Amino acid sequence: MIGLGTYAFFWQHSERADEPLTLRGAFEATRDLDVELFQICDYAPLDAMPEAEVTDHAAAARDLGLTIQLGTKGIVPEHLERYLGLAEAFDARLVRGMLYGPDSRPTLAEAETQLRAALPAYEAAGVTLALETYEQVATADLVALVEQIGSSHLGICLDPANVVARLELPRDCVESTAARTVNVHVKDFAFARQAGWVGFTYSGAAMGEGLHDYPHLLETVRPRERGIDEIVEHWLPWQGDPETTIRTERAWTRQSIDYLRSTT
After folding, report:
1. DSSP 8-class letter at 192
2. How far apart are CA 149 and CA 124, in angstroms?
């Protein structure tokens, strides 16, 4: 299923917007685009949201016919327990995770211990934890960790854009994670020369206009055949003013949805 994530609304949510978009507003914007899946990923207000507000947002999502997924950073068991409770409130069946959190950087051995402590509750609740590929952890190490634990409710959230900062190739990341992928983050990316030709900026691009070989990902991972959701995100640089930036962000979202719907 095609979905939108909070990173598709990054600037609309931010304090730079004249009227920052609320989470409920993002839900409504998602349904206006005829999309039925939303991933609340790294959305800071959710971490401290009172239970009554969580209940209200979950009810709003259900009223709109939205399926919700969650995303957070860090795998400390107590933190994952908090997100399992949020997942149950939102009827979410997937939580995207990252090994490192704001205050924790476990070794691989420590990460295995933490995950083994947290996963039985996820398995019992029927919730899958998807660990994202990113530059702070080698993709090979992340895959090995998932395989060593061997839980049917632990997999990979594939984002090949992230690993370039580790000098890994996106195609290699796709191929090495394909068998364990349970969630896909969709965004295009490209390099641009800095002024004066002194280096490059690695940043986002409108979907289909950058370096991401998405047909290769579709062929290798086969998300549509395997029921793996594709969550739209962006790495959109600030465009100089709120109006231009938000207009571009919305255009990129529409282009990404159209691109995904046109590919098979």
Report:
1. E
2. 16
- Beta carbons of 118 and 75 less than 8 angstroms apart: yes
Run of H or E including 229: strand 229-232
CA distance linking residue 87 with residue 219, whole number of Å: 31
Q: How far is CA 143 from the centre of its chain?
A: 17
What are the pLDDT digits (tens) for 103-131? 999 999 999 999 999 999 999 999 999 99
Q: From the CB of residue 15, how many other CB atoms can be counted at a distance below 10 Å?
A: 5
pLDDT single digits (tens) 235-251: 999 999 999 999 999 99
The closest alpha carbon to 130, from 165, 61, 177, 65, belongs to 177
Token pair in block for residue 224: 């549509």
Multiple choice CATH, 2-186, 3.40.50.1100, 3.30.70.20, 3.20.20.150, 3.60.110.10: 3.20.20.150
Q: Quick check: 212 and 218 in contact, CB under 8 A?
A: no
The full set of domain ranges for the chain reads 2-186
Round to whole Å and give the CA distance between 178 and 171: 11
